[in-house]
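Give me the fold.
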Amino acid sequence: MRILVVSQYFWPENFRINDLVRDWGHRGHEVTVLTGVPNYPEGSVFDRYRIRPDDFMQYEGAQVLRVPMLPRGSGSVRLVLNYLSFVLGGLLWGPVLLWGQRFDVIFVFEPSPVTVGLPAVLLGKLKKAPVVFWVLDLWPETLAAIGVVRSPAILRWVGHMVRFIYNRCALVLGQSRAFMGSIAKYCNEPTKIRYFPNWSEEVFADRQAEPAPEIPVQDNVFTVLFAGNIGEAQDMPAVLEAAQLLRDNPGIRWVIVGDGRQSEWVRNEVLRRGLQERVILSGRFPLERMPSFYAHADALLVSLKRDPVFSMTIPGKVQSYLMAGVPILGMLDGEGASVIRDAQAGFTCGAGDSAGLAHAVTALAALPPETRAQMGRNGRSYAESEFGRSALMARLDTLLHEAAALGAKRLSGST
């Protein structure tokens, strides 16, 4: 099968789409990726790409084509321009870069923004290829939830754009079952909506990783580790409030691995609150290094702000945490919390509940080591059964063939 991937983000940036493209190549598919210039999350073009861009034209056998775009930089205005520049680059340059190429299906990877669907829809029309859209972030709901857009008129306009995109796709995939209702509000044909979650990345199953040397080893200290994006959605103020509530407990420390738009705020707040001895900010590291940081963890933390849209979301790190076999602390509502509870893999409290998180940390730390180890085993077993990579990759392959068949049927009926 000839697959065109449209994604604003791609290798050398760290996103699950890299894993998908690799898998499709191994399955014998012919893959082309239309993407932007790597600049996430720092906001500036990666030095190694800027110096030698030709080194990034192939990935695991896939052809990689990049449209011109403005790096995200810092601040809301630059972020909006970043989103718009990829749309314009995809609309104007996409057809040129892909001139003469034919595809059986177009796959859209949408962690955010939803605007990535606009060039995909155009290319679907030009190439007469069905579009499969994987919804990982709900728009316009997320824009309202994190306060990026407050104008009802703009949110309505975004809703019209979402409807325009969904209704021109052959299949729309939602990353959680709770997404289905929201997607259906903007999709005239509910029969083309499918549930397709994130998978547990196998790199996190590494039990032999040596502890990362960047984190000091401390005996008799319970380590809570947060890994991933540090942004508005992750509610870092509530996380730091929990750390402050436990500041006088020398047996508990917090390690934050990652970066994002709130990284500088977190650094300043740790200093302001006098939490330097309790909170370690290690910065961002490649995905393949994560098992070495997880090796320090007695518990892995996932948090989301309190908002209906986030209660429908299963953060991708939940699947990774489960596979790591380490107990999970969840400060979130809805789907993500339900997964942790159903897996019997740790403790949860409500989104934004700093006191509840502090209590969960102390309660988990007080458990016998074997009880915590069993939670970790429960999580890994649940990840393998519910979010196993091989089964989900095979399922997606089936969905792509279904979309291709729908596209072929539509074409034959139009001739």
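The longest strand covers residues 30-35.
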